[in-house]
Amino acid sequence: MRWGLIGASNIAANHMIGAIRAAGGDIRSVLSSDADRAKAYAAEHGITQGHYDLDAMLAADDLDAVYISTTNEKHFAQAMAAIAAGKHVLCEKPLAMTVADAVTMVRAADAAGVVFGTNHHLRNAGSHLAIRDAVAAGRIGQVLSVRVFHAVYLPPFLHGWRLDNPSAGGGVIPDIVVHDADTVRFHLGEDPVDVVAIDAASGLGQGVEDSCMSVWSMPSGAMVMAHESFTHAYAQTGLELHGTKGSIIARNVMTQRPVGQITLRTEAGEETISFSDHNLYVRAMDHFHAAMRGEGRPSADGIDGIKSLAVAAAVAQAAKTGERTAVDYGGV
Ligand code: NDP
Fold first, then answer.
1. Measured CA angle at 169 (ends 255, 21), to 5 deg
2. pTM for this predicted structure
3. What backbone phi and psi angles, to 5 degrees, belong to 20?
4. Does the CA dihedral 290-294-300-302 come out positive or negative?
5. What CATH number should be reported for the domain holding residue 9?
6. Are residues 166 and 234 in the same domain?
């Protein structure tokens, strides 16, 4: 599988280059908006070709697939160009700046017959796979509520567009709420109907929100409470699912690494749920490669990316207006 990287990013350097290679992919080229940076990034990561012109990169005809990890406002045009060139696309979250653009991308990929995936890593974690299995097996009964704790301190090397550039898709809502929305959908198998939210700039955000709290109502009647932040150095992450027969208390699981602890509490007492410690991104790549071979689907596909973006867009709108806001899934 021959890959091109669209975006000379940190996520590619720190996670995805290794994951693509571990899953058997061959990275042929990387695109940066700056020619020198493209060359330097290619050399640093052992990639043959550094490009600064997307059309030239796609025209080179040596790629089966592209991984898009530029800033968020660039995803749409780059994905559309790659799809038009017949490439399979794995795109970072949020897929686009609007739900309508995300729907256009995913429909274009379907029409072109290429595989389209969204890089929601959390649903690939052994911890989340184990939680989902426990919920599906009825171990906590009917789910009454979910609490998501995803307030972290944004590492200094990522301070930049996320904190001060709304037109690049900065802010904690596009950055983290999408992941939480995807994770909750993954566990409950249903999509939020409407949301209320409050956001804030509590220390780091300049012109964008760096913190958000929201409550979502689910079709089953379950309630979801979500807290995301870039400013919390000591909170640690977590996820709790509370049901009629038990509760799942998971700590340190909203993370890029295969870590954390999961406790199941029922009438019988407490038990630890064990889980696999495989690399989240390698699992995502294994699934994407299988989908490219016509075997199965990406672990998170285009519809999943649209839906997580739709929830985040509703949270942003609810925070802005102060009103309970219906989630608009763009017709998917
Ligand atoms: P970065 O800020 O590292 O990269 C985004 C762009 O910034 C790059 O495409 C690059 O532009 C430019 N850039 C990066 N580093 C430098 C530098 N040292 N000097 C000059 N320019 C630089 O973003 P992230 O990797 O944090 O995020 C990229 C995308 O991935 C976003 O959509 C984000 O939401 C997503 N993401 C997903 C994660 C996940 O686990 N699924 C985790 C982290 C991010 P150019 O390409 O033009 O050189």
1. 50
2. 0.97
3. -60, -45
4. positive
5. 3.40.50.720
6. yes
Say how far apart CA 194 and CA 217 lie, in whole Å: 6
The count of structural domains within the chain is: 2
pLDDT digits (tens, 9 = 90+) for 155-183: 999 999 999 999 999 999 999 999 999 99
Alpha carbon separation from 233 to 160, 236, 315 (Å, rounded): 18, 8, 23
Where do the DSSP E strands lie in 202-245?
211-217, 223-229, 238-243
Q: What angle do CA 278, 280, 285 make, to 5 degrees?
A: 105
Q: Is the CB of 78 under 6 A from ligand 1?
A: no
- Token duo for residue 49: 């070709």
User: 137 and 263 share a domain?
Assistant: yes
Residue 22 lies in a domain: yes
Q: Report the separation in Å between the CA atom of 72 and the middle of ligand 1, taken as the mean of its atom positions.
A: 9
149 occurs within a structural domain: yes
Look up the domain containing 213 and give its range.
Answer: 122-279+309-326
| Count of all residues that appear for the chain in the document | 332
* Sequence-distant (≥ 6) Cβ neighbours of residue 113 within 8 angstroms: none
How far out from the chain centre does Cα 161 lie? Answer: 18
Tell me the best of 10, 177, 299 to mutate to test the pocket of ligand 1, counting ligand atoms within 8 Å of each CB and taking the most: 10
Q: What is the DSSP letter of 268?
A: T
266 CA → ligand 1 middle, Å: 43
Atom 15, ligand 1: which residue's CA is nearest? 9
Do 291 and 322 belong to one domain?
A: no
pLDDT one-digit tens code per residue, 50-109: 999 999 999 998 999 999 999 999 999 999 999 999 999 999 999 999 999 999 999 999
